[in-house]
Design a protein that fits this description.
single chain, 317 residues, Arc Repressor Mutant, subunit A, SH3 type barrels, five-stranded antiparallel β-sheet, four-stranded antiparallel β-sheet, 25% strand, elongated
Length: 317
Amino acid sequence: MDTAGRLLRLLGLLQTARDWRAEDLADRLEVTERTVRRDVTRLRDLGYPVEAMSGPGGGYRLGAGGRMPPLLLDDDEALAVAVSLRVASSGTVGGLEESALSALSKLEPMLPPRVRGRLEDVSSTTVRLAGFEPPSVDPATLAALAGAARAQERVRFHYIAANGVHSERLCEPFRLVFAHGRWYLVAFDCGREAWRTFRLDRISDVVETLVRFRRENPPDAAAMVADGVAIGAYTHRAEIIVEAPVTEVARIIPPTVGRLAPLDADRCTLVIGGDGLEWVAGYIAGLPFPFEVVSPPELVTVVHRLGRRFIDRHPLG
């Protein structure tokens, strides 16, 4: 192997997010430890932050900063990156379309024919459903909140609620969740002294306060967002007893549609939201299990009315 190829191979080993003993690197590259040390020096001269480790035999790791190393990807990894760039170029995160297309134009010519063929298979058989494009988010907002969550620093931002009310929030960011084509922030709202979820496309003017925080017992961020999407976003909330084990019902009702909890081995409760009780009645009527309405009592009337309508429109005989 020539020097250039060996340096690329060494970079590939170092970027696997682990510490390497000099002896192990020498074995992998089929060279001496002295050659490994010289190659490490060459990488440092090229701007790559290779850190030395102390201890028996010594070792190396690739540090943060410096130049972006060339990525050595296998077929599946290259395909995943290419597909992700094509998704990003469609506008999921606003402002990244041009950058994603630019990166994709550099990546595609480098793909081996077998990977390029698989990418074209995916692209030629995938379509976007018109009218269901999710709102894009500002990449600067996404990056600022992700950085604050990782550093555990409070932020201030402007927020527009679903009812159109504008407010300024002081929050402690915890997690970012992507669900149903939208980005959500799960954070502790200092003004309301409670955990809240915020849609990122409604957040603007993020300001870092540089005030650190530490909060114990954070919530399950994914479950909190799912609960908000399934129930909190709607004007009506209903509770149903479903006469089937919760494991069976969960195969049909995802957490973003309703919240399930076991009652006993043969029954479970379903809490579901909707903009109208007619929609809720139609949804539960389509379940393949017997059910009983717990609340609200108005839903019972709607269910009866829906049942009579079905019978009147489709009489037997």
